[in-house]
Amino acid sequence: MGKVICIGLGPGDPDLMSLRAHRLLTTAPVIAYFRKAGRLGQARRIVDGLIPAEAEEWPMEYPVTTEVPFSDPAYGAALAPFYDSWSRRLAEQARKTDVIVLCEGDPFLYGSFMHLHSRLPAGLVEVVPGIPGMAGCWTATGQPITWGDDVLTVVPATLPESELRRRAQDTDALVVMKIGRNLAKLHRALAAAGRLADAWLVENGTMPTERVRPLREVEGEIPYFAIALVHGRGRRP
Ligand SMILES: C[S@@+](CC[C@H](N)C(=O)[O-])C[C@H]1O[C@@H](n2cnc3c(N)ncnc32)[C@H](O)[C@@H]1O
How far apart are CA 175 and CA 100, in angstroms? Predict the structure, then answer.
């Protein structure tokens, strides 16, 4: 009897995965990972050259990603059976061997694995935490994110503009994930909250293509892996 074990791989640089994740990866009989159809997938890219030659690879290709808005009932209607059937298949395999599921960053922080985790029996599933993408990103800016009593707020840029503005106003330090097509909205919300001048954008944090810029200078297309940050300026001795 094996288990379905999701391993957090950290923000992108393979050197940043845990020893436990590495041990499980390098002895894995079956390795599953999510990806957009026709793409390698970021989690799989992180482990390139590290997985055993004899390991079976199971790419789990999303039936839809950004082509259908999350608010459209068609989105849930396509994804629910996808997660149902993969959780059944992984559970079946776990009766014979361990199955390792790859996850970029930390699995319990906006990770797709959560949709399999909630469908699998508790005794059959395990999660290995990883360094979240945001930690790789604030480290890339060379500045601490929180000091003393600073409050850190993490928001997805998919929130309505007024909500983004309110959260940015109410916090000391801010992390904005899932920016994608919401860059212009994020600029407006942070400007209205008086936080745009202090905001940074980190693209592909800890990867060879990492780029760090003041957010106000960024326009147009940005990569999927991008995080905006405002550092806290709290109590310092
Ligand atoms: C679906 S969430 C997955 C988060 C992941 N589980 C984690 O722990 O960071 C995807 C979002 O994470 C952010 N992200 C994760 N890793 C990143 C990195 N290395 N550089 C920049 N953004 C990253 C981006 O905002 C991206 O849109």
Answer: 29
